[in-house]
């Protein structure tokens, strides 16, 4: 299976825009998914198929894709958005891979 | 309410075995592929295994292949993970997760069950 690479941390002030990247060689061929995980809680799906938002997820969460990199964008960051964020994809053999995770700090 | 509840975690010695269970409710369990995902203390998410709705397709991460066995009982709305030859590095919270139909995303997660492998 392949690897997905994320920055370990991203910091942003409230109201600003946070961008979290995820890079992987297979991303041009495979969809990416994003999860938010707060301490002591299970992950929550926030973006699927690169840029689709599940029902119940605030509009400030969006996703995009360009070549081997996908990006999770959080516009107008709020204190409650402070969490770990993980990208995830799959390969044609049935294996699933997660990125290493990015800790978003709201200053 | 759509829900997944894991059980069966605990403390086990290296080389020992443990069987995890995941009880599903609030949805048609037999229609969904299911997965196990784990998270070591202070670390990221790691996919462990997946099983298709009818158990026809089963996949494992290389780190557990040959030691772990995933299974399901659609009549009991339950998912299982039999873990043998456990190692210290298997210490983690184990989550069961539902896979979105025709997608590779996991839309429903349980609260997790802790497995500690230590002498």
Task: State the end-to-end CA separation of chain A.
Answer: 36 Å
**What is the quaternary state of this protein?**
heterodimer
Order of helices and strands of chain B: EEEEEEEEEEE
The count of strands of chain B amounts to 11
* Form type of chain B: globular
Provide a short characterization of the protein structure.
With 107 residues, chain A is mostly beta strands. Chain A is built from no helices and nine strands. In chain A, a hairpin with a 6-residue loop joins strand 3 (33-37) and strand 4 (44-47).
Features:
A: mainly beta, 6-stranded mixed sheet, globular, B: 119 residues, 4-stranded antiparallel sheet
Q: Could you characterize what this model shows?
A:
The complex is a heterodimer of chains A (107) and B (119). Chain A is an all-beta fold. Chain A starts with 8 loop residues before the first strand and ends with a strand. In chain A, the strands form 2 sheets. In chain A, strands 1, 3, 4, 7, 8 and 9 form a 6-stranded mixed sheet that branches. Chain A is globular and about 40 Å long. Chain A is 0% helix and 44% strand. In chain A, a hairpin with a 2-residue loop joins β5 and β6 (69-74). The relative contact order of chain A is 0.34. Chain B is built from no helices and 11 strands. In chain B, β5 and β6 form a beta hairpin. The radius of gyration of chain B is 13 Å and the shape is globular. The chains are: A mainly beta (107), B mainly beta (119).
